[in-house]
Amino acid sequence: MRLLRRCYEKLRLVINESKSAVASVFDRKFLGYVLWQGRDGDVRRAVSTKALQAFKLRIRQLARGSGGRSMAQVVEKLRRYLLGWKGYFRLAQTPRIWRSLDEWIRRRLRMLHLRHWRRGKTIYREHLKLGAKPEVAQSVAALSRRWWHNSLSAIHHVLTIAYFDRLGVPRLS
What we know:
This protein has helices at about 1-10, 50-60, 70-90, 95-115, 120-130, 135-140, 145-150, 160-165, and strands at about 30, 35, 45. The chain is mainly alpha-helical. Strands 1-2-3 form a three-stranded antiparallel beta sheet. The relative contact order is 0.11. This is Group II intron maturase-specific domain-containing protein.
């Protein structure tokens, strides 16, 4: 580090001590990426934990209560953010993480649908409109206020991946 300070002083550059260190590349994160070593010895790139947490927080903000917005408006805001994030982190070599984030985003959107529909009768009626069997619609509507719990239940047979593709939600994987 002393050598780097001397070299940079000659160039009249200042090192940010809080961000800089002389350490193994596997112990540091750089621009939201971390490096890890695969079983075969190859060095791979992944999205850092901090960047994933920030991503999930932003998705929660964009897909929280409707605030008077339609699903199309929510999806449009999500779309812009997801495409930008996907473009920035496209070099990450973690397909399992991408798939789990896709599933998590769809679950958030299913929960938002349930919150839009709010009451059990509305949930039942909307499920039938989307082609659900009456017993499936009834089981989801019976637990109408448990939005996060219901977002993983039988609703995923109605609000499928294809449904979200038609809405314009981009996939990360």
